[in-house]
């Protein structure tokens, strides 16, 4: 198993300041996205530039997290981004992704001993919520068991985390809080569905099913990633469509042979780079989601002397 990574040193004092290890969501999305989408990395695509006949242009991101920490972006699980498996029949899962990430971090710290004592924070977004809490416990247990590569783990950060399969309840409550759903419609949904908005439950409750269809009609026109925007045309997005237009730019940039050579991508290891695997009909990506609920892992972490930030 070969995990690809991007490492950006802290701009001031990299030898003493935190090492933040970033995992993308998906599962199967490349952390390159977070490096160049202007979220946390030092670079951002220049949306206003003309690039159709060449490579998209990059510009400096003044809000980069590398102004406060060293950031290690990992393409995980195997199969995401430029990471690959030599065994073509290999199927990644939540549990083996955690094991591989832990082994990778130990090896990386051995190869980069100047960062071995830095405070370490594990971070990520979306589906990484299932993996990060499990990885945190793996690191803590390894430290307690006397691992030769002891990590100075200090905390974790998760944005918009997927922790279980019951997302419908939270989506409706959130849509109401930000005024996408009216008070009247939200109260009707609570009353008719008894606070349980899963489609399988609604099948046996005609009134609940009707109300959920009404909530979907309100929520469907809204772009989930940026709720102040309308939904985009995914295949031919306009520049104002921030996520999907950047997806197009990253697809062009990361698949350029000169870019891959500059990044030291091993030739022939992947046929095509995808921002997120399995989203296109011609790209099959098998993944076993074997951690059904990571809430209990989060509860275990609350007993540890750690700093935590979980946000939407």
Automatic annotation (TrEMBL):
Family label: Belongs to the peptidase S10 family.
Domain of life, source organism: Eukaryota
Gene Ontology MF terms in the entry: acyltransferase activity, transferring groups other than amino-acyl groups; serine-type carboxypeptidase activity
Classification via PANTHER family: SERINE CARBOXYPEPTIDASE-LIKE 11-RELATED, SERINE PROTEASE FAMILY S10 SERINE CARBOXYPEPTIDASE
Xref: Gene3D superfamilies: alpha/beta hydrolase (3.40.50.1820)
Pfam families associated with the record: Peptidase_S10
GO term, biological process aspect, one: proteolysis
InterPro entries, per the entry: AB_hydrolase_fold, Peptidase_S10
Protein name: Serine carboxypeptidase-like 18
């Amino acid at each position: 198993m070969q995990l690809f990574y991007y490492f950006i040193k802290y701009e001031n004092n990299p030898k003493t300041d935190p090492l933040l290890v970033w995992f993308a969501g998906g599962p199967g999305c490349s952390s390159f996205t977070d490096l160049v989408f202007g979220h946390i990395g030092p670079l951002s695509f220049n949306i206003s530039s003309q690039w159709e006949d060449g490579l998209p242009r990059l510009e400096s991101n003044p809000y980069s997290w590398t102004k406060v920490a060293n950031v290690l972006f990992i393409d995980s699980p195997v199969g995401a981004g430029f990471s690959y498996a030599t065994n073509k029949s290999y199927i990644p899962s939540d549990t083996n992704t955690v094991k591989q990430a832990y082994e990778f971090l130990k090896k990386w710290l051995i190869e980069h001993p100047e960062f071995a004592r830095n405070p370490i924070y594990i971070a990520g977004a979306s589906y990484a919520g299932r993996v990060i809490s499990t990885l945190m416990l793996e690191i803590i247990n390894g430290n307690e068991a006397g691992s030769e590569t002891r990590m100075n783990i200090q905390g974790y950060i998760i944005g918009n985390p997927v922790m279980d399969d019951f997302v419908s309840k939270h989506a409706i409550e959130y849509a109401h809080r930000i005024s996408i759903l009216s008070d009247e419609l939200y109260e009707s949904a609570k009353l008719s569905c008894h606070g349980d908005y899963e489609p399988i439950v609604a099948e046996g409750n005609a009134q609940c099913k009707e109300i959920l269809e009404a909530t979907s009609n309100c929520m469907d026109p809204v772009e989930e990633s940026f709720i102040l925007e309308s939904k985009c045309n995914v295949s031919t997005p306009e520049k104002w469509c921030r996520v999907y237009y950047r997806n197009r730019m990253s697809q062009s940039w990361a698949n350029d042979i000169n870019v891959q050579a500059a990044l030291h991508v091993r030739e022939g290891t992947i046929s095509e780079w995808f921002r997120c695997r399995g989203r296109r009909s011609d790209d099959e990506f098998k993944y076993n989601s074997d951690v059904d609920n990571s809430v209990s892992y989060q509860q275990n972490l609350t007993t540890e002397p750690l700093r935590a930030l979980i946000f939407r």
